[in-house]
Amino acid sequence: MDFRSDNIAGAAPEIFAALQKANEGTAASYGADDISRDLDRRFSSLFGTDCRVFPVATGTAANALALAAICPSHGAIYCHEESHIQVDECNAPEAFTGGAKMLGLAGSDGKLTPEVLARALSLGWRGSQHNPQPSALSLTQATEAGTIYSPAEITALARIAHDGGLHVHMDGARFANAVVAGNASSADLTWKAGVDVLSFGATKNGALAAEAVVFFKPELAESFLFRRKRAGHLFSKMRFLSAQLAAMLENDLWLRLARNANARARQLADGFATIPGVRIAYPVQANEVFALLPEKIRAGMAADGALFHPWSDDGNGAVYRFVCAFDKTEADIAALLRSASRAAG
Amino acid sequence: MDFRSDNIAGAAPEIFAALQKANEGTAASYGADDISRDLDRRFSSLFGTDCRVFPVATGTAANALALAAICPSHGAIYCHEESHIQVDECNAPEAFTGGAKMLGLAGSDGKLTPEVLARALSLGWRGSQHNPQPSALSLTQATEAGTIYSPAEITALARIAHDGGLHVHMDGARFANAVVAGNASSADLTWKAGVDVLSFGATKNGALAAEAVVFFKPELAESFLFRRKRAGHLFSKMRFLSAQLAAMLENDLWLRLARNANARARQLADGFATIPGVRIAYPVQANEVFALLPEKIRAGMAADGALFHPWSDDGNGAVYRFVCAFDKTEADIAALLRSASRAAG
Amino acid sequence: MDFRSDNIAGAAPEIFAALQKANEGTAASYGADDISRDLDRRFSSLFGTDCRVFPVATGTAANALALAAICPSHGAIYCHEESHIQVDECNAPEAFTGGAKMLGLAGSDGKLTPEVLARALSLGWRGSQHNPQPSALSLTQATEAGTIYSPAEITALARIAHDGGLHVHMDGARFANAVVAGNASSADLTWKAGVDVLSFGATKNGALAAEAVVFFKPELAESFLFRRKRAGHLFSKMRFLSAQLAAMLENDLWLRLARNANARARQLADGFATIPGVRIAYPVQANEVFALLPEKIRAGMAADGALFHPWSDDGNGAVYRFVCAFDKTEADIAALLRSASRAAG
Amino acid sequence: MDFRSDNIAGAAPEIFAALQKANEGTAASYGADDISRDLDRRFSSLFGTDCRVFPVATGTAANALALAAICPSHGAIYCHEESHIQVDECNAPEAFTGGAKMLGLAGSDGKLTPEVLARALSLGWRGSQHNPQPSALSLTQATEAGTIYSPAEITALARIAHDGGLHVHMDGARFANAVVAGNASSADLTWKAGVDVLSFGATKNGALAAEAVVFFKPELAESFLFRRKRAGHLFSKMRFLSAQLAAMLENDLWLRLARNANARARQLADGFATIPGVRIAYPVQANEVFALLPEKIRAGMAADGALFHPWSDDGNGAVYRFVCAFDKTEADIAALLRSASRAAG
User: Fold this and answer.
1) What is the pTM of this model?
2) CA-CA distance, A238 to C174, in Å (whole number)?
3) What is the pLDDT of residues D249-264, one digit of tens each?
4) Where are the alpha helices (DSSP H) in A88-174?
5) Looking at residue B183, what is its pLDDT?
6) Which member of D62, D209, D230 has the closest CB to residue B235?
């Protein structure tokens, strides 16, 4: 009963199989192998537009390198005040941009609104030598609160950003969960809505360690090879990163895994709703459930061996986070819910 | 009638005289001259404690270098969301710290409160490898809103900061104005209240260009010589920076100049109070007056040739900033007030 | 017949087995899993001294992060002018140190001498605010030229470095090859000889992607957790990095693989020696052979499908590099030599 | 008898007069004043081409900011191994470029040759993701050895640089001394010979503290306003920097001062030539004399109160540097020579 994160899970069998296959024979290093060279084509096909794709091993690397490609050291990056890039990456975006300014904006359910963004951009900084130059908007999809932006919401935000001269980045550590959450396609949620560069996550969704920086505007990728190497994120045996990404796209494995994760979160949220005293904190739209638990229930579940992290305490009580990894089963959720019911008495 | 800033003024005659005197003969360069070598003693005497003092030419350099001395590249700096270091230094603090995180906190009248700071520090970041490490608190004295912190207020904030493992920086671009504003001494407002390093401003107060980074904990200054040089802020003919600072301290010139500036702001605020329709936005405690002006009055004053900057519009009307430089006279203020009265009709 | 690099090889079967085993069940993320937590013990046992060990995925990350731990942004790093950190890491050391100075020194066979180092350190920079502060010496073991430093050579260099206030780093991307090349132990070649921090390579030696930064002075590792995360090099599913490293140490797999690689290089060099017109450029001490090939032989081998990189042309003819990966067989070398003999006519 | 550097001198009377004049009245800050706004015109007129000019206060700032404008963080800068930017700026170029690679090349008399540069650029780094990207050549004029490059020499070097995709920077801390040393104009020595950006020095030549970054290709200056501010090098009372630069150009003051400095160096070198045992180390072309002094003579001069710095010891004896500041007189030199003669016995 381990719900601490998606990354407490291992890797999917298909990923291992792909690695084993990639291990056959010798291959050119540093991305010149056949699997790596085919990634642009694969992702371009998925998104229905010309993409430039760069594998890296961690989400933090993907985010920070993507942001560095669209924000100079004298620039400002606008993001949610609780976003991963602002709170959980130990200044990696500042590091790789050479010291850009990160401006965290407020917003409920982990989401930014056009109003908040427009206000932040209305200060007259552009062109003034004193001020950080507004350069990038970063959206998280699915958000830190397990919610998702609709294409219309992204479009509205991206329009304001583009009008202000900003580029738009999407932190898609849980992009797969967002795609399967609604009726929108990968394209609808990204370049068609104004996203310029995407951190495409695979690790949380069942890879060992593989993410891709996907540029929808190839000209933004101009210096990326150098940026990645300079950051120590160029793998010599790149085929092993690329094989994970290729396997994810093969036969829509990535969507299949995410669909299960989301379904498990839905199952969990529905179950929680029947337990007296438990309250869901944010809309459950992806693979995370944030639940306000009475201490008695929390303690009972913990005593049963359930693992989950405290998230926040908003004064109304303590909220806990339950993340459903790609490989959680219906039985896993049922067991957790039984524990919660028992604890509720 | 130029009230756009303190830095539209030139330099005080005493400063020029000091420069002329410093120009006699040859002198060792890069800070080894007699005037420069005497600065530690002068400032230590002023503050009544052992200080290490480093002249630089701009306030941004002083702030960013001071912050770099107390915050690592993986650290976080807490400051007011409207502070100069956050808004008006084009990412210099990020640059010189190597990419530290700047976290702007809200607060009325340009001031931070213990509550806001304590909340920001309560997130459990310290020691967690994911999070920026809380490292520095920066207070502005006088603030961007022309208000001042009392020794008790600084003490309360510094205590929270120190308890959280942070060092405390004070941006004293208008420190002189703060000192003469109350009954507190330079020591009361700094190291006795918990300030570890001060950006001591002289430029706004009548120097050509001279600021000093003053360390109250000498061990924090260990690498400062290298940091300053690496930033291009080591002057070869350092005597010309040091002479300005020495002249400021000589016979309390700095306090005399600041006292005049503050008195002029008081005169202006009192005058505005008698003009129908004009409202003072923040308490006038130093040398700045923020006034809500009806458009008719603003336009009339502008037509008379008065120069002043728009500051904000809080929905209740447009606020304008009037800064009284060190050399403004009673007659200057009277003329400005006459213009305002005339415009008010 | 692929001899372009060690990294054109895949991963050893034992490494895959270890990954499969590590994939069982859930595990705490970000290094809190059991395998990761056991690494300090494993490496401390190997080296016979207390070590702090941090897995990363690439050699460039290991080197640049290790150097950042021992060299401030105003520091200087001394290394061989042809070393990987100077030539082949696209400024990663500069990036992670925040802009330290890299000073490449000359030396034959890829090696530095005490004389050259002593001369470089004799310029009186230490303590002078104008100069980069001498902070680190970095040695490559095995070197870029396929040679190795003896314990006595390392000791002599490290003594000069330590006397000058520098820390000593070893780039051990091919450390395994160096260990099996002589009679010296891992300890003899590192901390006993004065090495303070080691980049311990596993990727070239049969891992998918795994390196370890090994600190022999734990106090140098103080900020390393933050540095690694800030660089995007903290893996969420860390167990997959750690499992590779643990498998390498298990039953001396790393030495077994390196021994084979070195033996194949010896076999190749001995074979080349019998072919008229072929000349060995540097002493063959690890798993690399640098050979001066007449154009006829090069062309013939290439026509047979042999892959290898040109290295340099010193005026006496073109030198080519042949790297023997961990999994090359006697038959592989024999085939290559047959091709060379045939081409030689 | 102070010959330690040009910067042991104070400022010329004309500079003080200009500062006094600039002090009249209020003026827009941060470069919007009339004097500052006129600098582009003044320098464009001087150089006979369209220039963008940015005043800063120190030579290190000018150099490092200029280099940052033409070299990305993954780039490489080629310079003389003894150049100021490599040896004497405590990594400022690395700091402001965000960690570019500095590559010091050898060359006698402080000068680079086309052969050495061509060889350094022949390594095939351009476009390879592993290598620092060749981006800038920096020449010092006059050099650290007091020699000057002819227009033909600059042209030859700049052509190789441009052919390799590099921009060309000139460190002109003593540019005035170079201009008056030969028959070449300011234009001949810069943009006509292929220089893209110049650090135009005034401090050593009689200013208090003023340098200018002069772009001959305006497009390179695009982000310079932000870079300068971010580095803390934007002066609020900019008129005081600009006034020094304007005064230098007025009536060719800068050339007059430099002409005297060079003449004094010539006088000194000629005098030294008549003293047995003294040998001139480098050609004396600007305002510096490097002389090999027997210990007896050195000691005697020191005993007479002469101040000068040791420079190097090439095995043939100790070389000392004598710098003639802008305000040295014939009598000053004569006195120094008398001392040397006396000491020679």
Assistant:
1) 0.97
2) 19
3) 999 999 999 999 999 9
4) 92-97, 114-120, 151-163
5) 85
6) D209
